[in-house]
């Protein structure tokens, strides 16, 4: 029995391709559309909406600031515009790079930063700290809080990609085969 167990687990240990490939698949199946739909809510009208975010974009990213200026984006600085545009673009670009496996480690690291900022905005800007069920707690028998539970799984999934890379079915691998000599 121990020999069979060891044989099976040794094969799993040698299957280096499996974990990063599965992590990208799980990301695509669970988070890709979440971030893309969120990004779509931030776009303004028409093609120029890529550079002129909606009022809702500012309200999502700078909720307290928007309340202070009575939702008049003309009162905000160029810095606010740049943050909103960069955040909106990041919701499209970083998930797409992860799914196709291009610059995967860097993209996953960027997504971790994005999720941390998103979580802090939800907690501080949108008042999530005032609601214990939103913030949650670990080891409390309730696995459904938005921040401590859900976002911990997101970050763990992204850390797998930061550490392991994209795996063999990726543009990262295809490019590295073209650039690096095969003798290495």
From TrEMBL:
GO terms for cellular component: plasma membrane. Pfam families: DoxX (PF07681). It is found in: Cell membrane. The keyword Cell membrane applies. Keywords: Cell membrane, Membrane, Transmembrane, Transmembrane helix. The chain crosses the membrane at residues 17-37, 78-103, 152-171. It comes from the Bacteria. It is a multi-pass membrane protein. Belongs to the DoxX family. PANTHER family: INNER MEMBRANE PROTEIN YPHA-RELATED, OXIDOREDUCTASE CATD-RELATED. This is DoxX subfamily protein, putative.
């Amino acid at each position: 029995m121990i020999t069979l167990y060891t044989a099976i687990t040794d094969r799993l240990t040698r299957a280096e391709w499996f974990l990063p490939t599965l992590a990208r698949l799980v990301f695509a199946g669970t988070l890709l559309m979440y971030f893309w739909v969120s990004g779509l809510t931030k776009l303004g009208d028409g093609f120029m909406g890529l550079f002129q975010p909606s009022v809702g974009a500012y309200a999502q990213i700078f909720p307290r600031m928007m309340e202070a200026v009575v939702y008049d984006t003309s009162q905000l600085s160029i810095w606010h515009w740049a943050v909103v545009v960069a955040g909106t673009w990041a919701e499209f670009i970083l998930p797409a790079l992860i799914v196709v496996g291009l610059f995967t480690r860097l993209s996953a690291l960027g997504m971790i930063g994005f999720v941390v900022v998103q979580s802090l905005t939800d907690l501080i800007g949108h008042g999530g700290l005032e609601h214990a069920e939103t913030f949650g707690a670990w080891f409390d028998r309730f696995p459904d809080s938005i921040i401590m539970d859900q976002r911990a799984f997101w970050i763990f999934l992204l850390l797998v990609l930061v550490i392991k890379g994209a795996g063999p079915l990726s543009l990262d691998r295809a490019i590295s085969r073209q650039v690096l000599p095969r003798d290495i």
